Amino acid sequence: MNFKRFCESVRWVTPKLKDEMDEFQLHSKTLGLDLSRLLEAAKKGRIATLDDKTWSTMKNTDSWRGVKPGDVKSAIAYAKRYGKDIESIMDGYKRGEDMPTPIVLLTDSGPYLIAGNTRLMAARALQDRPKVLLVSMK
């Protein structure tokens, strides 16, 4: 199936940080980071197209290794495993909705996904090159 027209209609937008607060809290604890400093860094983040090097080296996402481009079934299977609703994201692609960018923290040990694993799995399955919010605490 050709997903190109779906991908062209989606507009990646800056995510609302309050909508991702659970993820920020979880990952600030996991990484031993001060939550308020992480949120301040996210407010200063920049939106960029996710490149292969960054995407393929994120260890805490199934989107690169688990989902093959064009394989919607594998993305749905991974999302179900986590109890996530990937179908609504794919429907958003079909309707050309605004899509909040995933949030990627750039660390000394490599990129780390703060939020948006399901969006990345959908993008990979639909052969889209997503935009992400790149966050640096340096």
Explain what you see.
The protein has 138 residues and is of the alpha/beta class. The protein has one domain. The protein has helices spanning 4-9, 21-31, 35-43, 52-57, 72-81, 86-95, 117-125, and strands spanning 11-13, 46-49, 98-100, 103-107, 110-115, 131-136. Strand 4 and strand 5 form a beta hairpin. Helix 5 (72-81) runs antiparallel to helix 7 (117-125). The chain is globular.
Topology of this structure?
Layout (H helix, E strand, L loop, with lengths): L3 H6 L1 E3 L7 H11 L3 H9 L2 E4 L2 H6 L14 H10 L4 H10 L2 E3 L2 E5 L2 E6 L1 H9 L5 E6 L2
Parallel strand pairs: 1-3, 4-6
Antiparallel strand pairs: 2-6, 4-5
Helix pairs in contact: 5-7
Q: Which features characterize this protein?
A:
138 residues; two-stranded parallel sheet; alpha/beta; 7 helices; four-stranded mixed sheet
What structural class results from the helix and strand content? alpha/beta
Name the beta content range.
Answer: 15-25%
On the 0 to 100 scale, the average pLDDT is 92
Global morphology: globular
Give the strand order, joined by hyphens, for the main sheet: 2-6-4-5
Rounded to an integer, what's the Rg over CA atoms?
14 Å
- Count every helix, treating DSSP H or I runs of 4 or more residues as helices: 7
In the predicted model, the low-confidence regions spanning at least 5 consecutive residues are: none
What is the β-strand count? 6
Q: Tally the structural domains.
A: 1
Biggest sheet architecture: 4 strands, mixed
Write the element-wise H/E pattern from the N-terminal end onward: HEHHEHHHEEEHE
Write down the oligomeric state: single chain
How helix-rich are the residues, as a percent range? 40-55%
Distance between the termini: 42 Å
